[in-house]
């Protein structure tokens, strides 16, 4: 199946063409009405003169009972249509209601019937005026047409120029926006461009596109983060389930030992479920609606230490926990569990010897590990994904997940790096 793409038309060109076409149409209509007005005005002047003469003749007849001779030489009183010029006679018989007739050699006639109450010898009386010498518009018709054509041409050129400038002014920001969108790639979507456009419909469109691109970019980032975070966070519970399953498959365990292994699988499965739910909440656009609850800190810390003890790998490291059994926070279990697990696994990974101290006071959890602190080369980017020190055994995702979780749930994250070691504090 072949897709056919039609060549896009220029919006600016269409605006200019329509502007010019409207100007031509307006000029033609204006010229047409000008002609009607001039002809109507000319006819009304002639008709008024003929009617005045008819009034004079009727008044004279009423006084003397005799018809006077018309005062103007171009007017003739006819008592019968047979005395009409042949052209007028023929036209009148065809159209008795007409009052204007065209003769030969440019002659032009206006006729008016005279109505009298008493006429002994005549049944119809007509006043016929030959008005070709009084015509003004018709002799100048060609000149007027040329003048109107020139005026139409000039106005059309002016309108086209205005339409061209206006279309460029209106369409240029839209063309710029179209080029920006066409040149954008999914890997590098444009950012912060809406403020470059005018505060009108185009600006609204640019702002809407910018917001959409920001959302699309966030979708892509969340998908990437979810993939990395899931791989990072699920490794430990998957390893626990795998090892426990292998132990069960040997068949050498007592019933009590089997129950312990099954509980270990159950805890790891629950941790995986909570981890997936938490990562999904980070991957969603909106905030999660999971209800918060009171969570004891010490059991989660102890479980995280046991789960990540393999990271110490017989290193001379002492783990010290200074947390009261009653210490608790009001939050979501999965979130707190991931935060604690990441802080402890990060401390174990970066500590070669010395101490790891976990404490909780003033509603803040702190994890300190002795050592050289954060390397100078990664101090500015330690919270970014895939950033880790040379001695790290992980993938450089722990603190990145901690940072994003804290931002997502409005928790305060503080990192203090000194020569004696590194201290990470989360305030709930």
UniProtKB/TrEMBL annotation:
SMART domains listed in its UniProt record: HATPase_c, HisKA
E.C. numbers: 2.7.13.3
Pfam families: HATPase_c, HisKA
InterPro entries in the cross-refs: HAMP_dom (IPR003660), HATPase_C_sf (IPR036890), HATPase_dom (IPR003594), His_kinase_dom (IPR005467), HisK_dim/P_dom (IPR003661), HisK_dim/P_sf (IPR036097), HssS/ArlS-like (IPR050398)
Coiled coil recorded as keyword: no
The reaction(s) this protein catalyses: ATP + protein L-histidine = ADP + protein N-phospho-L-histidine
Membrane-topology descriptor: Multi-pass membrane protein
Keywords (A to Z) from UniProt: ATP-binding, Cell membrane, Kinase, Membrane, Nucleotide-binding, Phosphoprotein, Transferase, Transmembrane, Transmembrane helix, Two-component regulatory system
Cell compartment(s), UniProt: Cell membrane
TM stretches of this protein: 15-41, 143-164
Main location: membrane
Protein name: histidine kinase
Organism for this UniProt entry: Pseudoalteromonas denitrificans DSM 6059
